[in-house]
Inverse folding.
């Protein structure tokens, strides 16, 4: 499943105090089976963009097409060339068709998993989604158990309150709650914040596994190591606009752009660049983390990796 955004704009509190333009003329296609990173400093619009993808926020104007779900908020103009606000309001009221099917296909794991956990036990929480989407109690529990196994939460947790779990466990339960609905696209907002290196590797291992099984992945992150190591495409937002869209390799090789945008390339990448400057003929496309960097060094030194 792909999602296409055409001229998507989003303004919080339009025509009211606290008005804030958060997305400006976003034109973007998330292809089927993508593994895409959304990058950008705090406030650049990542979370707002994510929430457009399953209809949680509707564009102020613009169009989103995701399979049979289409929201068309393209601007209507009056004869005098001004935007016809009345016609736009009417469009907004149009009942959203297929939104439920969209919500099932596009699962979002929010930055603060506490916000999406609400049942009294882990198993109830994770089976809520499939039940809500029409599965029988039995089927829903089965799917919940499968999802919990996938995220590494064992049976001893099933009857515990999700609110008593650690931050990392809560995040995994929240992810299981989304996975239990078997989404085509898994969207994660800052999934590695607050995790230690081992937790990060475990979580990204799970996400990569899901990707390899066919799920599309879109994640917002500040973590450039994650972008380099796992993602296939890096989109940079700045003040609600897309300012860069390439492979992570091309992004991190573009030193002038990085400087102007105050993005820091991953440490391992900077180290590899220093080695190249020092005369080592490394293939940067092979460098994803310390292990692959070591392999590259061994390769150019003529050893066995
Ligand atoms: N509920 C809200 N009300 C008003 N402004 C908001 C709200 N949420 C976010 N914003 C503003 O919209 C812009 C984009 O925010 P956000 O999408 O959260 O960025 P990011 O996720 O990249 O940090 C920011 O300027 C932010 O202050
Ligand atoms: Mg955010």
């Amino acid at each position: 499943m792909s999602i296409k955004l055409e001229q998507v704009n989003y303004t919080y509190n339009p025509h009211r105090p606290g008005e804030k333009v958060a997305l400006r003329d976003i034109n973007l296609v998330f292809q089927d089976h993508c593994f895409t990173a959304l990058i950008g400093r705090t406030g650049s619009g990542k979370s707002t963009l994510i929430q457009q993808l399953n209809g949680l926020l509707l564009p102020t104007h613009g169009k989103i097409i995701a399979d049979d779900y289409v929201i068309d908020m393209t601007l209507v103009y009056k004869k005098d060339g001004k935007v016809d606000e009345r016609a736009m309001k009417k469009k907004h009221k149009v009942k959203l068709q297929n939104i439920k099917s969209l919500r099932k296909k596009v699962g979002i794991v929010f930055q603060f998993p506490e916000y999406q956990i609400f049942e009294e036990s882990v198993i109830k929480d994770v089976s809520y989604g499939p039940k809500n989407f029409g599965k029988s109690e039995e089927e829903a529990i089965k799917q919940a158990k499968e999802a919990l196994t996938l995220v590494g939460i064992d049976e001893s947790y099933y009857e515990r309150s999700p609110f008593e779990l650690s931050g990392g466990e809560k995040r995994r339960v929240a992810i299981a709650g989304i996975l239990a609905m078997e989404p085509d696209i898994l969207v994660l907002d800052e999934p590695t914040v607050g995790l230690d290196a081992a937790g990060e590797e475990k979580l990204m291992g799970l996400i990569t596994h899901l990707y390899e099984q066919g799920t599309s992945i879109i994640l917002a992150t500040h973590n450039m190591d994650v972008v380099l190591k796992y993602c296939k495409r890096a989109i940079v937002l700045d003040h609600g606009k897309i300012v860069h869209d390439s492979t992570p390799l091309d992004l991190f090789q573009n030193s002038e752009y990085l400087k102007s945008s105050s993005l820091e390339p991953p440490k391992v990448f900077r180290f590899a660049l220093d080695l190249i400057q020092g005369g080592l003929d490394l293939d940067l496309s092979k460098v994803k983390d310390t292990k692959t960097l070591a392999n590259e060094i061994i390769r150019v030194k003529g050893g066995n990796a």
